Amino acid sequence: MEDIADKKRVMKWFSFILLFIFVSLSSCGPSGGSNMLLGNVESDGSEESSAVISYGSISGNITDAEDGATLSDVSVYILGFQTSTEVSTNSTGEFSISSAPSGERYVVLSKSGYVSQTPSATIPVNDELENYNVSLVPDTTWSQDKFVITLSWAETPADLDSYMYVPETGSTHKIWYLNATTRGDLTGDPYAQLDVDDIDGEGPETIRIRYEGGSLDYNGVYRYYIHNLTGTPSFTDADAVVRIYRNQVLWKTYTACSGDDSLDWWHVFDLTGSTGSIAVGNDTCENSEPSDPN
User: Fold this and answer.
1) Is the pLDDT of residue 21 over 90?
2) What would the mean pLDDT of 272-288 be, rounded to a whole number?
3) Under a CB-based contact definition with an 8 Å cutoff, are residues 19 and 66 in contact?
4) What is the pLDDT of residues 182-199, one digit of tens each?
5) Where in the chain is the domain with CATH 2.60.40.1120?
6) What is the per-residue pLDDT across 52-69, written as a single tens digit (0 to 9) for each?
């Protein structure tokens, strides 16, 4: 019995030594390149578990959804990595994080007077995610009790245009840039309005819809779509992104449809007035203007 007990003690110590060696080697991690072993609590209170993290970079421009103006001094950082990634936008609204953890991440954007947002981003390994352009909505009645739809893209093409069919009672109002009437109105029919029409690249283009008491004014389908006025480059190459804010909170994000330069229309989504539910339009670009759904 004593021999068996001795053997058990030896095996127990042997297992402990092997475990110690394994943990010691694991903590060393790989060397060089874009990888790093992390296991710290960030100042924003979040914690990234100990793991090998690959890095890339991200850059873009932050604007005001109300008037399209560039925003300086916006705090920008990767959620969970505030200490190592936080930067501020410059006088022209631009930012760049040169060492950002790769993969699916969330970018925290905040500035006094605006609603803080945390949109997602896919940061490539050893490469840069460019044209990460986002518009912040003012923390005012301008964005309260409303849908705010923003379109952002790269420096080229110069002009992407937002359109929306609004289901007025007995008719349809087509929201677009042509004139004051077609741009719509928020104080009366059609209770939707094109606020910003950008013609020199990056955006935003902004449309608002009244959403008081948690409901829309009409029961039909609000169809939102985009025209690539110059035709080239394609929506995909232009890094076009549509974001929908509902009562100031980022609700939906849609990335560009796929297709070549000859396909210059993108049906992004349909919003059902009676329920407030939304459906994706078409992931493939089209060669003709989407039809009125009402």
Assistant:
1) no
2) 92
3) no
4) 999 999 999 999 999 999
5) 56-134
6) 889 999 999 999 999 999
pLDDT score, position 259 = 86
Classify strands 51-64 and 134-136 as parallel, antiparallel or unpaired: parallel
- Going by C-alpha positions, the residue among 216, 207, 222 that lies closest to residue 165 is 222
Which residue in this structure is represented by tokens 């300086």?
A: 72
In CATH, the number for domain 56-134 is 2.60.40.1120
Confidence class of residue 73 from pLDDT cuts 50, 70 and 90?
very high
Query: SS3 letters for the chain?
Result: CHHHHHHHHHHHHHHHHHHHHHHHHHHHCCCCCCEEEECCECCCCCECCCEEEEEEEEEEEEEECCCCCECCCCEEEECCCHHHHCEECCCCCEEEEEEEECEEEEEEEECCCECCECCEEEECCCCEECCCCEEECECCCCCCCEEEEEEECCCCCCCEEEEEEECCCCCCEEECCCCCCCCEECCCCCCEEEEECCCCCCCCEEEEEECHHHCCCCCCEEEEEEEECCCCCCCCCCCCEEEEEECCEEEEEEECCECCCCCCEEEEEEEECCCCCEEECCCECECCCCCCCC
Matching residue, tokens 């890094």:
239
How big is the CA angle at 168 (ends 225 and 64), to the nearest 5 degrees?
45
Q: What is the pLDDT of residues 261-279, one digit of tens each?
A: 889 999 999 999 999 999 9
Delimiting residues of CATH 2.60.60.30 domain(s) in the chain: 141-280
Amino acid type, 279: A
Q: What is the pLDDT of residues 78-104, one digit of tens each?
A: 999 999 999 999 999 999 999 999 999
Under CATH, to which class is 141-280 assigned?
Answer: mainly beta
Rounded Cα distance, 32 and 259, in Å: 39
